[in-house]
Amino acid sequence: MEGVLSALAGYLLGSISTSILISKAKYYVDIRRSGSGNAGATNMARVYGLAAGLAALAGDMAKTALAGLAGWLLWGETGLAIACGAALIGHCWPLWHQFRGGKGVSVSACIALLLDWRLFLMLLVFFAVVFLLSRRVSVCSLLSALVFPLFYWLTGHGWGPSMALCCLVTVLVIFSHRSNIDRLRKGEEPPFTLKKK
After folding, report:
1. Distance between CA 98 and CA 104 in Å, rounded?
2. Which of 30, 76, 93, 110 is the most buried (most CB within 10 A)?
3. pLDDT recorded at residue 193
């Protein structure tokens, strides 16, 4: 029962799409109708500017933290892993928004922070270095997802519910970026640019 409640809480919280709510409330347009069509912090920053992107990122991380806390209170480490995994699924396929959400990067960032602050810092530095080299957020996201479980292992953690969660992050983030992978393969993926005033 604890596992079911953790999954339910995580999915419902994860289904709250911050970028969609902000774009509709402040700009009167669903973010999924603009830019890349993705309901995520990167597209918010690309379409509406850095402040909008950071607001969406903060909201997505907050909902993930709440989901993780609920899972932890219900069933400890296992509950946290289940709730965060469900929040990731809810973010990508949100119940409240026609199952069209983001690509899971902001949620994954919060998951890293919840699991181990060293993991978060390692991924943050890795993401920044890859971005400086590629200028493409999709490349940063894909490569960060690939090394997610490896970096968690390097911080001294073995197999368990949290490692399973790391592997889920890898699979879902890569799966949600399949259109980006196709554009990268064709050489059509554009570099990241902020909205110009």
Report:
1. 16
2. 110
3. 85
| Residue 195 lies inside a defined structural domain of this protein | no
**pTM, whole model, 2 decimals?**
0.94
Number of neighbours of residue 104 by Cβ within 10 angstroms: 27
Contacts of 55 (CB under 8 A, 6+ apart): 18, 22, 44
Residue 191 lies in a domain: no
pLDDT tens digits for range 141-193: 999 999 999 999 999 999 999 999 999 999 999 999 999 999 999 999 999 98
> Is residue 15 classed exposed, middle or buried when 0-12, 13-18 and 19+ CB atoms within 10 A define those classes?
buried
Residue 24: CB atoms within 10 Å? 13
- Quick check: 83 and 3 in contact, CB under 8 A? no
Give me the domain span that covers residue 170.
2-186
Q: For the segment 11-68, what is each residue's pLDDT rounded down to a tens digit? A: 999 999 999 999 999 999 999 999 889 999 999 999 999 999 999 999 999 999 999 9
CA separation (Å) from 83 to 94, 99, 107, 116, 166? 14, 18, 12, 16, 13
Taken in order 66, 120, 76, 12, the sign of the CA dihedral is: positive
